[in-house]
């Protein structure tokens, strides 16, 4: 277990290249090509993290300045996903998430109950998170493990369902994102889009990236939009002219650099994806296989980034005006792209729908993050996490995701019966999607 924890502590940018290298070799890729693929993926993740870091370092202080400028009072601090993942993996329970996640995946693949082969094992921390939450609430270790397993089943089910949309919108063939912070929003976007389609006038508004750029010329360019949004946020934060201009250029840089880092990631994954396709065709004729990856591959899309930047001030506004919310969005403002990246394909890249749908999703999420804050804080203490001067902490990832509420409430309210029943329902969903009506599900999702 100590070796496994050491491996996890290497971080995604080191751990994932090693996994990609080994996985590529298993699939029959030559050693040199496999090594270069893994190294390229690692470099891509480092570049992506640098850009996300730039976004966090620029937006975080601006958000805090906006809060201070307008005198807002919120007593629960958003400590961000790095803290949430450290808390999740910081216990014996959390360290079991990776072997359990791999084991569940292998069993489902052997029985043909999933098409998702998840190599993004770093992000099993999302399942470790709900397990840790349940343990704090109930004190039942076995129930917490069972909750992690059921959460993993849901991620594999969502991975199977969303792969079609990912290929259609992002162009990534045979890839999917069974990501704990991103995949759940897909199920929320479907009914929202159904409602949007039935609002007269609103359903005729075209606001995808290409339409915006065509109508507004240079002002519709994603980089220029990032500049403008950054200037507005800087002004609301009360920055001086120099600070406003710097923030504007930084947000513009994020929109320019992010897609390039994602392209580098895809360059590394391309040979592995091809090898996986050939491997499956030879050994499982007629069966598709999706490689489960981090949804970071999707956040470089102009529609995702543009909507996310607009949602930064919207999120802060919602945090202040929503009665009962206690969370001050801060560290995870840079994670907003991850929260909505699987909503955007459902909205067909429509910026207006993405912003409104994202605002509804995050607005509800703030209440979930407030609800989970006492448990989140206790879990942090159990993992010996340094709270600093904060008395109450939470996060947008995963604190504001609806699955956190479901997987925290059901075991507490209904115990083993509730979580087992939920697991059976999800298993039936896997059977339906992969065994009974795969074509019907594919047509519905498209």
TrEMBL record:
Keywords from the named record: Cell membrane, Membrane, Phosphotransferase system, Sugar transport, Transmembrane, Transmembrane helix, Transport
InterPro entries: EIIC-GAT, PTS_EIIC_2, PTS_sugar-sp_permease
PTS EIIC type-2 domain sequence ranges: 4-434
Bilayer-crossing regions: 6-27, 34-56, 86-113, 133-157, 177-196, 216-237, 243-265, 303-322, 328-347, 359-377, 413-433
Listed GO biological process terms: phosphoenolpyruvate-dependent sugar phosphotransferase system
PROSITE patterns: PTS_EIIC_TYPE_2
UniProt GO MF annotations: galactitol transmembrane transporter activity
Entry protein name: PTS system IIC component, Gat family
Organism phylogeny: Bacteria, Bacillati, Bacillota, Bacilli, Bacillales
């Amino acid at each position: 277990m100590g070796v496994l924890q050491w491996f996890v502590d290497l971080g995604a940018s080191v751990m994932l290249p090693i996994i990609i290298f080994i996985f590529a070799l298993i699939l029959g890729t030559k050693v040199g090509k496999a090594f270069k693929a893994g190294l390229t993926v690692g470099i891509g993740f480092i570049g992506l993290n640098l850009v996300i870091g730039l976004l966090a370092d620029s937006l975080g202080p601006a958000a805090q300045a906006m809060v201070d400028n307008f005198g807002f009072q919120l007593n629960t601090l958003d400590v961000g996903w790095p803290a949430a993942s450290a808390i999740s993996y910081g216990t014996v329970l959390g360290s079991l998430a990776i072997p359990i996640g791999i084991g569940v995946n292998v069993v489902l693949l052997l029985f043909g109950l999933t098409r998702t082969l998840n190599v993004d094992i770093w992000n099993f921390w999302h399942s470790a998170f709900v397990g840790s939450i349940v343990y704090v609430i109930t004190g039942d270790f076995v129930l917490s493990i069972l909750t992690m397993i059921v959460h993993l089943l849901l991620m594999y089910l969502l991975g199977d369902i969303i792969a079609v949309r990912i290929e259609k919108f992002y162009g990534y063939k045979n890839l999917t994102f069974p990501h704990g912070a991103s995949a759940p929003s897909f199920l929320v976007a479907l009914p929202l889009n159904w409602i949007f389609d039935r609002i007269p006038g609103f359903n005729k508004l075209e606001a995808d990236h290409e339409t915006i750029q065509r109508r507004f010329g240079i002002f519709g360019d994603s980089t220029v939009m990032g500049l403008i949004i950054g200037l507005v946020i800087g002004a609301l934060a009360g920055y001086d002219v120099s600070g406003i201009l710097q923030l504007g250029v930084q947000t513009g840089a994020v929109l320019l650099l992010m897609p390039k880092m994602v392209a580098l990631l895809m360059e590394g994954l391309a040979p592995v994806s091809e090898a996986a396709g050939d491997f499956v065709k030879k050994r499982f004729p007629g069966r598709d296989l999706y490689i489960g990856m981090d949804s970071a591959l999707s956040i470089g899309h102009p529609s995702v980034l543009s909507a996310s930047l607009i949602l930064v001030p919207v999120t802060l506004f919602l945090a202040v005006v929503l009665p009962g919310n206690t969370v001050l969005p801060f560290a995870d403002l840079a994670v907003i792209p991850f929260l909505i990246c699987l909503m955007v394909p459902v909205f067909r890249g429509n910026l207006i729908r993405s912003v409104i749908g994202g605002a509804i999703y995050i607005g509800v999420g703030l209440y979930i993050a407030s609800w989970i804050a006492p448990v989140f804080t206790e879990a942090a203490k159990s993992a010996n996490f340094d709270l600093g001067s904060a008395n109450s902490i939470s996060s947008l990832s995963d604190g504001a995701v609806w699955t956190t509420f479901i997987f925290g409430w059901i075991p507490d309210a209904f115990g083993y019966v509730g979580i087992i029943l939920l697991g059976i329902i999800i298993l039936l969903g896997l059977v339906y999607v992969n065994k009974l009506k795969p074509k019907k599900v594919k047509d519905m999702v498209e």
